[in-house]
Amino acid sequence: MITLEALCHKLGTPYKGDPSLTLTHACGFESIGPGGLAFVSNPKALAALPTPGGVFRDQGKNLHQVDPGLPCAIIVPPGTEAEGRHLIFSPDPLDTHVRATLILHPGPASSGKIHPLAFVDPTAEIGKNVTLDPGVVIYPRVKIGQGSVLRANVVVMEDSVLGEDCLLYPNVTVREGCLLGNQVILHSGVVIGADGYGYYQRDGHNHKIPQVGRVVLEDQVEVGANSCIDRARFDQTRLGRNTKLDNLVHIAHNVEVGEESLITAQSGIAGSTKTGSHLMMGGQSGIRDNLKIGSQVTLLARTLVTSKTGDQETLAGMPGRPYHKWRHNEALLGQLDSFLNRLKNMEAFLAGLGFFKKPPT
């Protein structure tokens, strides 16, 4: 809960409306209500709101009309005119709305308390103001940076290191020797550092290949619920700074993902593939093992990449191919029935001229 004036002071943005208006939550424009804060990129959308009435002061100076039944605020582009509305002006309404949302809905703050039902090995190093909820287990020689929050039943195994201000939700497991940077967020069910899928066969029997490497998550990495990032065979599996994974994503052993990447649900990258920065993977897409993927590569949903790529490519289909080629081929597939009928008619015509006895079946 915060006043319009105080919020705009924190955001560093100009506003028009009642400085004392109380905002309680961020919301979408379609669901805006009392105390809500929404945004629009197109000012024409404001016409959908009911006609306002009443009065307010423009930053304490001028009187304007307001809607007493809808005490809310809207972030709009500069120069937007909407008589009687409480407006916040920003050249990037989405970004400002996101920053405002973090103010109105701050994440879990560290209480600095270690619950009696948490177990911490005596050799572990716990930083200042760290929260450990019930059921947390901290193995030997673990290091946890200040301000981090570990929710119920999180397990951090021996020799792992967590940076400052990390947030691990319930039932996260960080296996031995893994390294997490600062402000890393792991959602429930995430497993960091499970063994990579390594086996070989001798005399008809499967034999396990030891996985003795680690996982490194750089600063501000976020991993969605029930995703798995496997430890390397010898060296490290790495996610670059500010990379974000959706739920149900699998990153195999020895993979290196560049910074600022976005990988959505049910996608996977097979072992030892290296990607550049700003990779974007649509849902259920995949990348084969041992490939080199360029920077700023985008994969549409259900794309499977089977060969190396350059930079700034957009791929689609299975196997993945440039988007414009995939789209052209997909359009042709829709005309196969027409092509087949035309071919049959041509064969019948040629058969009538005696080129062959009867049309092939």
UniProtKB/TrEMBL annotation:
Pfam families the UniProt entry points to: Hexapep
Family: Belongs to the transferase hexapeptide repeat family. LpxD subfamily.
Keyword RNA-binding: no
Gene3D superfamilies: Hexapeptide repeat proteins, MurE/MurF, N-terminal domain
One BP annotation, GO: lipid A biosynthetic process
Protein's recorded name: UDP-3-O-acylglucosamine N-acyltransferase
Residues annotated as catalytic: 253 (proton acceptor)
Catalytic reaction equation(s): a UDP-3-O-[(3R)-3-hydroxyacyl]-alpha-D-glucosamine + a (3R)-hydroxyacyl-[ACP] = a UDP-2-N,3-O-bis[(3R)-3-hydroxyacyl]-alpha-D-glucosamine + holo-[ACP] + H(+)
